[in-house]
Fold this protein.
Amino acid sequence: MSENNKRAVDMLHGGIFKKLLYITIPIFLMSTLQQLFNASDTAIVGNFSSSEAMAAVGSNAPVINMIVTFFTGLSIGSNVMLSHFIGRNEEEKVNDALHTSFSVALISGFIMLFLGQVIAVPILKLLNTPSHILPMAQMYLRIYFLGMPFLMIYDFGSAVLRSIGDTRRPLYFLIAAGVLNVLLNLFFVIVLGRNADGVAYATTISNGVSAFLTLRTLIREKGMLHLDFRKLSFKWKYIRRILWIGAPAGLQGMIFSISNVVIQAAINLFGSDCVAGNSAALNIEYICYFMVNATCQALMTFVSQNYAAGNYDRCKRTTYIAFASAIGFTAILSVATYLLRFPIISLFTHDPNVMKYAMIRMLWIALLEPMTALYEVPGASLRGIGYSFVPTIITMLGCCGLRLLYIHAMLHQFTAFYQVVMIYPISWAITGAAMIILYFIVTKHVYRKRENN
């Protein structure tokens, strides 16, 4: 038995919950550890440099997400495509698609590298970034984007391994790179006396390590997951499938980030204390969301393989199990982090004004994070069967469009920070209701049509 077969999860037969959890937990840990390592940037500059450096790092988060998420969404297209081929036992197509996927990853990474250098100053000014933190913020952003090719290699490589249910090796790679990131953060900030630029260099170097480990693994793989640089290619039939699934997912993430950028501009109006507090709470909020996101990543792979194999009832059961799991486990995380909000936020700052804003965001968003499962889970299931466009439109209109309209209408009337962030749970509820209705309409039609054929 080949090494990749040993690590593969049989998603077509047997119990669902344990196998779903087996794939979900490493993905959740990967996302959480990555966020914690990224949060170390904020925490270390906040504790060992200054609140201005902390705000400079934090103010870049929406900008980075806006650029990165589109290309990261393309990796979802690769994962779904590869899972379909695996479900049909078409190993030769898996290998061909893998090499096209990596070609897309490399080109995407270099596009992002150069784009980041061009947009750094203009976009930060557009966001009303406070002038006294602008030099540090633009330096951080430019250095961060130097590592985008590394980040794309890791993301696409993880998507390839995830298509067979192997989520553990990407987790190990991330742990190694993340520990290095923290150590380098401490070295650059404490030993060398750097601020935001120091943690940006640390992030870029650690991204390079995770990319190297991912590449080495796939080059050493046997069989359908073996990567050979001589076989890198741009086969349009595979690129089209990647774009059909991945581009809407990436566009959704990008529009999400654009809406967050607009909201960040409103947050910036409350001053650097609010920017820093919002940034600290955002790190914790992400961790709660990661359980929903990890469940959706596992769900897409499950549904993709079973849909390709004709197991439509199993697709439905997996979706229902994923829905309950995402809400339940995320609720546990949200309540736990809210109860521990004071010691958690104190890891980032002891400034009472900064902490005040962090607590407000945790109340209105982190505590209510399970609501994101209302639209994320059914949307992920639909992407697993190849329907990505309409879920993207609904999410963009419900979450992003509504937020943009709200900020545009209320921007000059905001007198308190909670008035800005309260739009999040409202948009989740509206989008979730629409997505659930869409799920039942589409799956009833698609599964019945496939069964009749």
